[in-house]
Amino acid sequence: MKKINKIFLLAIILCLFANMLGCAKRNVNVQKNDEHRRQSWLKYINWDAERLSYSGKNIKIAVIDSGIDQNIPELNCKIDIETSVVKSNKESDVKHGTAVASIISAENHSDNQVNGIAHNARIVSIDVTNQSEGIVEVGDLIKGIEKAIEYKVDIINISIGCLKDDEELKSVIKKAWDNNIIIVSSAGNYMENNVLYPSKYKETLSVGSLNKKGKIISPQGDVDKKVVYFIGENIVSAIGNNEYAGCEGTSFSTAICTGLVALLLEKKNDKKSVKEYIENLDYSNGIDFIEIINNYK
């Protein structure tokens, strides 16, 4: 049998289709005073819609993932395109992709909903997940990136990774960058002295995770690729069906970084400059979005 190189969604390798690894489901109708209303992770990065001058307006973001639940109110009318490169499945589990999209661009319309980073950004949902097995094949990821290039997006969010290099994957990542697209990619969970592909490629923004105290969770040690770090624990997001979850992992740190990229691109649409600016951020004293955006010239 022909061997197929398969990529696992980072935050859900073990149990995407049971619950979500590191995610405790919360129903807002029951737990009205739960942490999903406080969203402490937003305070950690000093995100404040009333004090931020930018919201990702006119920035188009491809979320290459498991698909997205379009019915959640926080993402109402934000998904411009929904497509798939894999065979459709009526019972598809879209929690992971929905959580990622929610972190990027959710907009709170009531006390019982959550906010994302760039609530005026537009989303292109590209499903690349084999739902029956909960994995992503390299070939499908490549097709997904090709789709994103075709749709002329500004940013590609890839909360997916694998240990092995792949020449076709490397080539399509370079193609995306050459087409003036910023690729934001998860460095990987439980990584030491290494990051996963495609985040290892020089064209990508490689994103790792911090805990609430600002300590590195992953990747740790000496890494031969520049990694930027964002909070990666208890990131409360919408996962569909009126449910919310406090999520953990570099998948969700990546979504936060993608949201920041959208805000910066709205301020100054110079993708090379934005990538270099984010790669040189000092995360040692925490990430302050207001300061970061104000300092970007």
Automatic annotation (TrEMBL):
<dbReference type="InterPro" id="IPR000209">
    <property type="entry name" value="Peptidase_S8/S53_dom"/>
</dbReference>
<comment type="similarity">
    <text>Belongs to the peptidase S8 family.</text>
</comment>
<dbReference type="InterPro" id="IPR023827">
    <property type="entry name" value="Peptidase_S8_Asp-AS"/>
</dbReference>
<dbReference type="GO" id="GO:0004252">
    <property type="term" value="F:serine-type endopeptidase activity"/>
</dbReference>
<feature type="active site" description="Charge relay system">
    <location>
        <position position="251"/>
    </location>
</feature>
<dbReference type="InterPro" id="IPR050131">
    <property type="entry name" value="Peptidase_S8_subtilisin-like"/>
</dbReference>
<feature type="active site" description="Charge relay system">
    <location>
        <position position="65"/>
    </location>
</feature>
<keyword id="KW-0720">Serine protease</keyword>
<protein>
    <submittedName>
        <fullName>Peptidase, S8/S53 family</fullName>
        <ecNumber>3.4.21.-</ecNumber>
    </submittedName>
</protein>
<feature type="domain" description="Peptidase S8/S53">
    <location>
        <begin position="56"/>
        <end position="273"/>
    </location>
</feature>
<dbReference type="GO" id="GO:0006508">
    <property type="term" value="P:proteolysis"/>
</dbReference>
<dbReference type="InterPro" id="IPR015500">
    <property type="entry name" value="Peptidase_S8_subtilisin-rel"/>
</dbReference>
<dbReference type="Pfam" id="PF00082">
    <property type="entry name" value="Peptidase_S8"/>
</dbReference>
<dbReference type="InterPro" id="IPR036852">
    <property type="entry name" value="Peptidase_S8/S53_dom_sf"/>
</dbReference>
<dbReference type="InterPro" id="IPR022398">
    <property type="entry name" value="Peptidase_S8_His-AS"/>
</dbReference>
<feature type="active site" description="Charge relay system">
    <location>
        <position position="96"/>
    </location>
</feature>
<keyword id="KW-0645">Protease</keyword>
<keyword id="KW-0378">Hydrolase</keyword>
